[in-house]
Design a protein that fits this description.
This protein is α/β, with parallel strands linked by helices. 38% of the residues lie in helices and 18% in strands. It contains nine helices and six strands; from the N terminus they run αααβββαβαββαααα. Strand 2 and strand 3 form a beta hairpin. It is globular and about 55 Å long. The model has no long low-confidence stretch (mean pLDDT 92).
Length: 274
């Protein structure tokens, strides 16, 4: 990795953040697979550490949270018996939080879809916020206790529950059921009705699947090691928050949230290694 020129490193990272797989990146740049993986790991770790420090005392007001599914090593049904029940083999969930106004993603967490991991995620999010916020999640029951553990009563918390129909189309493979209606449930505080939504964070799920090959369905680009999935997620959000101009905002989310005053590029991200 140290032998790569800065220009070649930029090419590798540019390929990765635009949704290319490791092998495709190797073919496009002529860089060896192990070198690409080592660069991803080193830079992903640096990106996670930088964002952990930068995203503090945030003045967000409307936070939306969701979780997105992926798998590592093998699909859950194909995990060998000696690896069943071990994290990093089979289903893996990524919890994400998004500020509805600035589109910043200030917190994420990789883990199982359960109360323990939801609590870790919510406590991490709570530690990054400067003021009381309005929070919206889906109707998963784990969030009820997780939000209480993290925020207590100092939050305006609501859930939006989607009611799906049971149609013939919904029985087909990979075809989502039709959403008949949604219900808004106020849990804690006094959330504003018009602010109860998870639309933006659900749209972020699509961005993640489009820009990280590891999240693309029906391919062999899935992560073989959960550690590398974590590095890829950290790099993705570094690029999304600091480098990629949001089409609606005309600036990056980090600039909108006043985390930075400048537009970053991939070289700036690479400088984190130093």
């Amino acid at each position: 990795m140290n032998k790569l020129t800065k220009e070649k490193q930029v090419q590798v990272i540019a390929a990765l953040v635009e949704g290319n797989s490791i092998r495709a990146t190797c073919r496009m740049t002529g860089v060896a697979k192990n070198t690409v993986v080592k660069l991803l790991a080193a830079l992903g770790k640096a990106c996670a550490e930088y964002q952990d420090k930068a995203f503090r005392n945030l003045t967000c007001s409307h936070i939306q949270c969701d979780e997105i599914w992926a798998f590592c090593y093998a699909k859950e049904k194909n995990v060998p018996d000696d690896k069943k029940g071990h994290f990093g083999y089979g289903d893996v969930w990524t919890f994400t939080a998004l500020d509805a106004e600035t589109k910043l993603v200030p917190a994420w967490h990789l883990g199982n879809r359960d109360l323990q991991n939801a609590t870790i995620f919510m406590k991490d999010l709570a530690g990054r916020l400067k003021n009381k916020v309005q929070l919206t999640t889906d109707g998963h029951k784990m969030y009820l206790e997780a939000v209480e553990n993290a925020f207590g009563g100092e939050i305006d918390f609501s859930q939006i529950v989607k009611i799906y129909g049971n149609t013939e189309e919904s029985q087909k493979r990979y075809s989502p059921a039709q959403c008949i209606r949604t219900e808004k449930h106020n849990i804690t505080g006094n959330p504003e009705n018009e602010g109860i939504s998870t639309s933006y964070v659900e749209r972020q799920n699509l961005t993640m699947r489009m820009n990280m090959r590891r999240f693309t369905r029906l391919t062999n680009g899935f992560s073989k090691k959960v550690e590398n999935l974590g590095y890829a997620i950290a790099l993705h959000f570094m690029y999304y928050n600091f480098c990629r101009i949001h089409q609606t905002l005309r600036i990056t989310p980090a600039m909108a949230a006043k985390v930075t005053k400048q537009l970053w590029d991939i070289e700036d991200i690479l400088n984190l290694l130093n």
